[in-house]
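Hello again, I could really use a second opinion on something today. Take your time with it, there's no hurry, and the full record follows here:

___
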Amino acid sequence: MNLVGIINENEFYTNHYLSEIFEGDIKEQITFWQTKENESESYKTPFKRLKGLGGEYFSLLKELSRKNLTKQEKIKLSREFSKTFLDVLGYEYRYSSQELDASSIPLLVTVDKDDGSPYLWVLESFCEESRDVLTASIVKEQLDALDEVDETLSFDEIITSHIFTLPEPPRWVMLVSPFQIVLIERAKYAQKRFLRFDMQELMARKEDTVLKALSVLLHHESLASKDGLSLLDTLDENSHKHAFGVTEDLKYSLRSAVELLGNEVIYYTQYDPDFLNKKTLIKS
């Protein structure tokens, strides 16, 4: 499966799993959306809706490049697109500022578990040009007037040292900007394993298979399902199982190769005692 525009940083999932197995594992969810579309005139699949956002998206980038707009005006335009984008993915947009020990942070979506503890936070990373959203900082225009903000902290530092260290941290953080989206799972982020989505690449190419993958990986139904194990948990479990299976196959293949080589040496030394001393012996 060709996933140009989706970067599997430090193997959030194993690379072989994404290229060879992943497409089959998401087929059921894709079929569910397509069946729902066929049964309802008012419903459109998330990946079709994403494909239709291209014009609006590139108009936003054009506006962000204008010099005569204030930062507040650009943030407003960015949020309007983020609201539409998150709605496509099944999230209820509701801006709020969350106070942390070091700085307040701008939240666009919060999803809680049944007991009220946080499960997913969607953070806004405002950028006027393409850059790594994790190295960007919060700007004061993103927050309410009375909120305290530390503009020296990068989002990487905020997530690592001030969100995931909370007494009850969210399991997932999605960092959203006009240029990149980053999906982070708390247990994997210590090894800097996460998924990065290049929005310019994705919206320019509009490839069906990639938009389907994005829809599944970021959608509320597959990421924050209320019905027990989420689809992303299933994908992660399958990725681990496949990696273990590949390791086992390699181990047995290596053992078989060593046994074959050993048997050949035994065979020739039995019938030719000088075999090991011959110059024709293949050198390692």
Notes: The radius of gyration is 25 Å. The mean pLDDT is 89. The chain has eleven helices and seven strands. The beta strands are 6-9, 96-99, 104-112, 118-124, 172-176, 180-185, 194-198.
